[in-house]
Amino acid sequence: MLRLPLLFGFFLSVSLSIIVLLLSLIAKVTFQTLIFRTLTVFFVFGVLGTFLGSVLEVFIMPISAKQEKERLESELKLADDSVEQELGDLIKPEGSSIVDALQSNKPTEFKPVAFPRMKVKKGKVVSSGDSAVVS
Q1: In the chain, what is the greatest distance between 2 CA atoms, to the nearest angstrom?
Q2: DSSP code per residue over 7-63
Q3: Which of these, 121, 7, 101, 105, lies nearest to 53 by C-alpha position?
Q4: Which of 42, 101, 111, 127 has the fewest CB atoms found within 10 Å of its own CB?
């Protein structure tokens, strides 16, 4: 993960260089001094912020990631009976009832579907026959 060190470096460098720029404007220093101070603070605190972000990423991120993973696992558990009662069949693995019914050769409640006969006449699809509405 490279985002945390870059984020820290960018934040510290921009925020502190803006503060130094404003303080230099208030002190009415010359333009060369203002630019030198601002750029020096920008690069120094950019490097320091990147170093601080790297240290935090190495020492803090594994601990917080472990805690977040444990919290997520506890939230994903379906220990509440009311949740199981409300969700019903949605908790079961997908398609298990249909697959089980087909494999056990039990009669299913499915009925065959009769589709209307479609033909192509003069480049148009035309329905003919079994449908209730024939155009």
Answers
A1: 92
A2: HHHHHHHHHHHHHHHHHHHHHT--HHHHHHHHHHHHHHHHHHHHHHHHHHHHHTHHH
A3: 7
A4: 111
Residue 33: both structure tokens together: 């001094």
Provide the sign of the torsion angle of the four alpha carbons 72, 78, 84, 88, taken in this order: positive
Q: What Å distances lie between residue 124 and 129, 133, 134, CA to CA?
A: 16, 17, 14
Pairing outcome for strands 117-121 and 124-128:
antiparallel
Q: Which distant-in-sequence residues (6+ apart) come within 8 Å of 127 by Cβ? A: 116, 117, 118, 134, 135
The DSSP 8-state label assigned to residue 93 in this structure reads P
| Nearby residues of 128 by Cβ (< 8 Å), 6 or more positions away | 116, 117, 118, 119, 134
One pLDDT digit (tens) per residue for the chain, 135 residues: 567 788 888 888 888 888 888 888 888 888 888 888 888 888 888 888 888 888 888 887 788 888 888 888 877 775 666 666 676 666 665 555 556 666 666 565 666 666 666 777 787 777 766 545 544
Q: Are 12 and 54 in contact (CB under 8 A)?
A: no
